[in-house]
TrEMBL record, chain A:
Single Gene Ontology BP annotation: amino acid transport
Topology class, membrane: Multi-pass membrane protein
Transmembrane segments: 6-33, 45-62, 68-90, 102-122, 142-164, 193-215, 227-254, 266-283
Protein name: Inner-membrane translocator
PANTHER family in alphabetical order: AMINO ACID ABC TRANSPORTER PERMEASE PROTEIN, BRANCHED-CHAIN AMINO ACID TRANSPORT SYSTEM PERMEASE PROTEIN LIVH
Lineage: Bacteria, Pseudomonadati, Pseudomonadota, Alphaproteobacteria, Hyphomicrobiales
InterPro entries found in the cross-reference section: ABC_transp_permease, BCAA_transport_permease
Automatic annotation (TrEMBL), chain B:
Keywords assigned by UniProt, alphabetized: ATP-binding, Nucleotide-binding, Transport
Highest taxon listed in the record's lineage: Bacteria
GO cellular-component term (any): plasma membrane
All copies of domain ABC transporter, residue ranges: 8-246
Protein's recorded name: ABC transporter
Record organism: Nitratireductor pacificus pht-3B
SMART domains, per the entry: AAA (SM00382)
Length: 293, 246, 336
């Protein structure tokens, strides 16, 4: 294949990564933005979403789309419910003290990972895509499902943006983010808002995971790399900024796709991680955003 | 005992936050040994101004000269060692350490630099207790600072400043939140300190200002509105209108 | 008049304020070391092996404790300092056929140098950003060990030949693969680091670190160079972690990427939290406790990660001060 088409292919793959990554990073960013805590277990919610997607899809027979749609609806709900319970049982009791929360979510990470290993096993399992159409481009064929993933992610982002900026739920969340004490004084149930945000963040990770399982397989260790990438996206995009998150996800997704063309994946990861660490050291407000308060 | 050069001089000192000029071209001079009060309405830039002097905030432009040395680019911790001590407006003690350990940290820092005397447990104890005694907290030395009353925590702040044996002690609203009886003690304490060090005092309580200050600077919107002895300030019409409320 | 009380109070305080450990705490720590020495001759073979490993890893935990417990720096990247020591010693033994002393020194140099660079960069950030930056630097280090798999053999790792693991002295040599020798060498390193930390925390430097943890802005306005003190803490912490890693390489003869992975950044955090952050004996207690908890759990279930997770959450929820911290809070306030 000539360089041009090859580059196009890499860019398309990069966009798919970016689409999934922005959903996942958005979840992390929301939790950090509103609750001011870092959820280290975010990658495990993603993994859980994928594993549950596999399980739900095996429950029903018939056309693969049925199983997939069932997973797309139920898996995020179950993951969100689990996150809600974890928030109420653990994080709320820690008073959202940042370092204690980090330690607790590390604990959560291990627990979820171990449960997945015990009940799901060490195998990687695929979920069949809801449709199997290939779009023929002049140079290569490309999976229509992958393009659909990009489209669906954009829809989800718009929906999230709408909820955050145009609805009462969004208003309550922003009020809580802006000033917790005042929000409480105005009768906003801050505890429930926090639990809701935590559940929403986990749910977004699960949606991202369901979208990815027809492309990558579900595996109990799959949460690790996306977690790091999400950290990177959230940092580069500026914490708590929706637009920054999307731009950063596209940037990271594309460069991930393109850099891997020229370097070994390990070297690409090394350089990217080092670069982002340096961004955080020298420009802690991110490349686009301003310091979140 | 008038010094030839003032202890502290600022020239055209500016600091902007975003578009706001918190401190606007302030030229100010403080002779050694003076007790000087800065007054002005909230948001006049008083705390920003002293923060520029002690180095907690970097200036946008202008210069700060302390004891003849240009210090506007010097990091805060080195300014402290050069002799500028700052007590926080919002009480900022080490809440989990004892009152003595709080003061000992200040003494320790000074003794590290004191080549002649050197750092020893004995010197640490003596000088730490000395500072606590001066503010009247000796009997609370072993108590955890966070458990002290608010008034005692304010005094502990001052004791930490004293323990540094500064040439210039900056007190940022030291009497805020104190009872009348505590304020009287405080006035006596600052008078004592003023006998040996230069004191720069931000204060809202006019009784305290009039009782202590040899000279007063009135700030408004980041600028110096007036400067003079307490009597002159009391008589100043502009000040009357702007601040003292007629 | 306050002046009257001065003399009496000063004299009373003079007996209490010391810059060196009290006789009581020196006796306690000497007792712990003697007990550990006796255990070398009393423990059955299997447990002696476990204890030797715990002693080496407790040094790792003590190093982590210096940064996290005393200075309040939550790092999620300390595996890189441990692994730098491990590889610094292991690779020089394996590829350059260095003897143990210079290899050990190479491990220390690698870890300390790395800590200096990483500390210099990462300490520009605080709090959560510091955690993420250290995590990322450690990830880069881990990926580096994988990338140079020709030399490191990645996850599979290298086994150092027994013949190279000999500690030469002017009067003879110690065979480090002998269980008793290994235990005693591990104990020696542990005792050395424990002693340094015991004296350090009472010394002005240690007091400064704790005060920086409590309120760094106030420390700055007392004239302390907060950055330099934090950096010194990170470098010393890196040195201890590297010592642990280098000792691990020459005592147990295995060097692998697994030790650079994120788990080995989280484990010292776990050990220190369980044992008690900012206590001298907490790291040992925590490491020992977790080793046996996981050991016991492993005989019932393979799900030892579950145990780690539950203990982490349980400790942070119900015993945030850890074992030694709780003992100090309730019964022995003089415990360092």
């Amino acid at each position: 294949m000539a360089f041009g088409p090859y580059f196009l292919l890499a860019s398309l793959e990069g966009l798919v990564t970016a689409a999934v990554l922005s959903l996942m990073a958005l979840g992390l960013s929301l939790v950090f933005g509103v609750m001011r805590v870092v959820n280290v277990a975010h990658g495990e919610f993603y993994m859980l979403g994928a594993v549950l997607a596999w399980w739900f899809s095996t429950l029903v027979g018939g056309h693969p789309a049925v199983g997939f749609l069932l997973a797309l609806v139920l898996s995020p709900l179950v993951v969100a419910a689990i996150a809600f319970v974890a928030e109420r049982l653990v994080l709320s009791r820690l008073k959202y003290e940042p370092e204690a929360t980090i330690v607790a979510t590390i604990g959560l990470l291990y627990i979820v990972q171990q449960l997945a290993l015990t009940f799901y096993g060490p195998e990687a399992r695929p979920v069949e895509a809801p449709f199997n159409y290939r779009i023929s481009l002049p140079w290569f064929g490309y999976s229509a499902y992958k393009l659909a993933v990009i489209g669906f992610s954009i829809l989800m982002m718009i929906a999230t943006w709408f909820v955050l900026t145009r609805t009462k739920i969004g208003l309550v969340m922003r009020a809580t983010q802006f000033d917790r004490e005042t929000a409480q004084a105005f009768g906003i149930p801050v505890g429930r808002v926090y639990a809701g945000v935590f559940a929403l963040g986990a749910g977004l990770a699960a949606v991202a995971a369901v979208l990815i399982v027809p492309i990558q397989q579900a595996h109990y260790l799959m949460g690790h790399d996306p977690l790091l990438l999400s950290f990177i996206v959230v940092i580069i995009g500026g914490l708590g900024s929706l637009r920054g998150t999307v731009v950063a996800a596209v940037l990271i997704g594309l460069s991930d796709g393109i850099i891997s063309m020229f370097f070994s994946p390990t070297l690409a990861k090394m350089l990217a991680t080092l670069a982002v660490a340096m961004v955080l050291v020298f420009r802690p407000q991110g490349l686009f955003g301003t310091v979140a308060r | 005992m008038a010094a030839v050069t003032p202890l502290l001089v600022t020239r055209d000192l500016c600091r902007t936050f975003g578009g706001l000029r918190a401190v606007d071209q302030v030229s100010f001079s403080l002779p050694e040994g003076e007790t000087h009060a800065i007054i002005g309405p909230n948001g006049a830039g008083k705390t920003t101004f002293v923060s520029l002097i002690c180095g907690r905030v970097a200036p946008s432009s202008g210069s700060v000269v302390f004891a003849g040395d240009e210090i506007s680019r010097m990091p805060a911790h080195r300014r402290v060692r050069a002799g500028i001590a700052y007590t926080f407006q919002i009480t900022s003690v080490f809440a989990n350490l004892t009152a003595f350990d709080n003061v000992a940290l200040a003494v320790q820092r000074r003794l590290i630099d004191d080549r002649a005397r050197g750092l020893s447990a004995r010197a640490l104890t003596e000088q730490g207790m000395d500072a606590l005694t001066r503010v009247g907290l000796a009997e609370h030395a072993g108590k955890v600072a966070g458990n002290l009353s608010y008034g005692h925590q304010r005094l502990l702040e001052v004791a930490m400043g004293l323990a540094l044996k500064p040439r210039l002690l900056i007190l940022d609203e030291p009497t805020q939140g104190l009872s009348d009886g505590e304020i009287d003690n405080f006035i006596a304490l600052v008078r004592q300190i003023g006998a040996e060090a230069t004191v720069l005092l931000i204060e809202h309580n006019m009784d305290v200002v009039m009782a202590l200050a040899e000279r007063i600077t009135v700030m408004e919107q980041g600028r110096i509105l007036a400067q003079g002895t307490p009597d002159e300030i009391r008589a100043d019409n502009a000040v009357q209108q702007a601040y003292l409320g007629g | 008049m306050p002046g009257r009380a001065e003399g009496g109070v000063t004299r009373a305080m003079a007996n209490r304020i010391k810059l060196t450990p009290s006789a009581k705490s020196l006796a306690l720590h000497a007792g712990v070391v003697l007990l550990l020495l006796a255990l070398n001759f009393l423990l059955p073979e299997y447990h002696r092996g476990v204890f030797a490993r715990v002693l080496v890893l407790a040094v790792f935990a003590m190093g982590y404790n210096l940064a996290f417990g005393y200075t309040g720096l939550l790092s999620l990247g300390h595996a890189m300092f441990f692994a730098a020591g491990l590889y610094g010693a292991g690779l020089t033994v394996y590829h350059l056929e260095w003897s143990v002393w210079p290899a050990f020194a190479a491990g220390l140099a690698a870890g300390t140098g790395l800590a200096l660079v990483v500390g210099f960069l990462a300490l520009r950030t605080t709090g959560v950003a510091f955690m993420i930056v250290t995590l990322m630097f450690a990830q880069v280090f881990y990926l580096t060990t994988l990338y140079f798999t020709t030399y490191t053999r990645g996850e599979e790792g290298l086994v150092l030949p027994q013949s190279s693991r000999v500690l030469a002295f002017p009067g003879g040599a110690l065979n480090l693969s002998d269980p008793s020798t290994r235990y005693l060498v591990a104990l020696t390193l542990f005792t050395l680091v424990l002693t340094v930390i015991l004296f350090l925390v009472r010394a002005p430097f240690g007091r400064s670190l704790v005060a920086i943890r409590e309120n760094d802005e106030r420390m700055r306005m007392l004239g302390y160079n907060v950055f330099a003190n934090k950096l010194a803490s990170v470098v010393l912490s890196g040195l201890f972690c590297a010592a642990s890693g280098a000792a691990y390489a020459v005592l147990f003869g295995y060097v692998g990427s697994g030790f650079a992975a994120i788990q080995y950044s989280i484990l010292p955090l776990l050990w220190v939290l369980v044992g008690g952050a900012a206590t001298t004996l907490g790291p040992l207690i925590g490491t020992l406790f977790m080793f046996y908890v996981i050991d016991t759990a492993s005989s019932y279930t393979t799900a030892h990660l579950l145990v780690v997770g539950l203990v982490l959450i349980g400790v942070i929820l119900f015993f945030p001060k850890g074992i030694a911290g709780t003992v100090r809070g309730r019964w022995l306030p003089w415990l360092p």
